[in-house]
Amino acid sequence: MNKNQALRAALESGKLFTAMAAHNPLAAKLAQEAGFDGVWGSGFELSASYAVPDASILSMGTHLEMMRAIASTVSVPLIADIDTGFGNAVNVHYVVPQYEAAGASAIVIEDKTFPKDTSLRTEGRQELVRIEEFQGKIAAATDARRDKDFVVIARVEALIAGQGQDEAIRRGIAYTEAGADAILIHSKQKTPDEILAFVRAWPGRVPLVLVPTAYPQLTESDIAALGKVGVVIYGNHAIRAAVGAMRQVFAQIRRDGGIKTVDGQLPSVKDIIELQGDNAMRAIETTYLR
Question: What is the spatial distance between Cα 183 and Cα 171, in angstroms, rounded to a whole number?
Fold first, then answer.
């Protein structure tokens, strides 16, 4: 199976598909190395890596080229986070084939207004578009894809916006009717109660996608046992791990006035060179350099 077929088959099998966030090809490669089923091309992480807010600041071109670089590096499916779709349904219709051509196996579109505000920001500006408008975006996305196995995921932000479970269910059903292959339901509550209530009420027409950033106590075995969830995404752990590690190492170097203490604690230069694909390049040199 190719990567699109692998993701589609996972959704249809009922087996939980795990995706780790990445903001560059190296993070994606490490996610695959760790054994995750796929990679989440995180808009939050990419924005953070540029040190700008996750608020539709970066251009589509910047995001698209990073997704292309990630997809070319790993052999597992890439789920691209395209926020609100970079415009209206017309924009979405043009955007989807570009992400498909870049090697993504799926896109996630959220039902907030453009420019968006990140979902987990305290007192963030969480404004939703009309249901009919977002149905148009989903229909445009599904009609624009060239491979029927390319997955279109609709992200419901009603719980984030404080509009409650009934509205979240209503929107999820409407987006399914418009052609969505899965529904990502998001919550910023510190316990999984709100999400669990939604899952229990979900009629199950398509699988759900969860991002347990705010409620980390919900494990993969817990999620799989729900029977309605097809994908779990770890939405920002690569950038948080990177920031934490760099802060610690940088601070230690300043305290010590040098790298003597930290050097032995870090991955070796040889390890980094191997991650860069040095062995493959050497093989190419041997074959082709005359």
Answer: 10
Cα 242 to the chain's mean position, in Å? Answer: 17
Question: How many residues would you count in the chain?
Answer: 290
Q: Residues 97, 103, 104, CA angle at the centre, nearest 5°?
A: 75
Kindly compute the dihedral angle of the four CA atoms of residues 140, 143, 232, 208, in this order, to the nearest 10 degrees: 80
Burial of 117-130, coded b for 16+ CB within 10 Å and e otherwise, reads: bbbbeeebebebbe
54 part of the active site: yes
Number of alpha helices (DSSP H) and beta strands (DSSP E) in the chain: 13, 8
Determine the Cα–Cα distance for residues 169 and 184; give it in Å rounded to an integer. 11
What is the arithmetic mean of pLDDT over 76-90? 97
Residue 123 above 80 pLDDT? no
The pTM for the full model equals 0.95
DSSP β-bridge partners for residue 182: 153
Q: From CA 9, how far away is CA 37, in angstroms rounded?
A: 12
Q: What is the pLDDT of residues 244-276, one digit of tens each?
A: 999 999 999 999 999 999 999 999 999 999 999
From residue 277, how far is each of 150, 158, 241, 280 by CA, in Å? 28, 43, 23, 6
Band of pLDDT at residue 152, cut at 50, 70 and 90: very high
With both helix axes pointing from N to C terminus, report the angle between 60-71 and 89-101 in degrees, rounded to the nearest 10: 30
Q: What average pLDDT does range 89-97 have in this prediction?
A: 98
